[in-house]
Amino acid sequence: MEFLLLCVVLLNALLSSLMIRLTDRGHFVNALPHFVGLTWAGTVVAAVTQRVVAGLI
């Protein structure tokens, strides 16, 4: 289950960071900081969500 969640978080971060660059018409190398930030934000939210749901069940 955690592997699937990790794949979804990484895919979401990758596609979102590329979309930010495409709409801003910037260089694709500038998508890397967005990818890192979105990955960190996604993993923190996923970890907090897992702990809260585990506490409720």
What's a concise summary of this model?
By secondary structure, this protein is mainly alpha-helical. It is built from 2 helices and no strands.
The structural class is mainly alpha
Unreliable stretches covering 5 or more consecutive residues: none
User: Helical segment tally?
Assistant: 2
Helical amount: over 70%
Report the radius of gyration as a whole number of Å. Answer: 14 Å
Tell the overall outline. elongated
SSE pattern, N- to C-terminal = HH
Number of strands: 0
Q: Give the N-to-C terminal Cα separation.
A: 16 Å
The residue-averaged pLDDT reads: 84
Question: Major β-sheet, in short?
Answer: none
- Residue share in β-strands: under 5%
Write the layout of secondary structure elements.
Blueprint (H helix, E strand, L loop, with lengths): L1 H23 L6 H26 L1
Helix pairs in contact: 1-2
Task: Pick out its properties.
57 residues, 86% helix
Question: Would you give an account of this structure?
Answer:
It is a single chain. The chain has 57 residues and is mainly alpha-helical. Helix content is 86%, strand content 0%. The chain is built from two helices and no strands. It is elongated, with a radius of gyration of 14 Å.
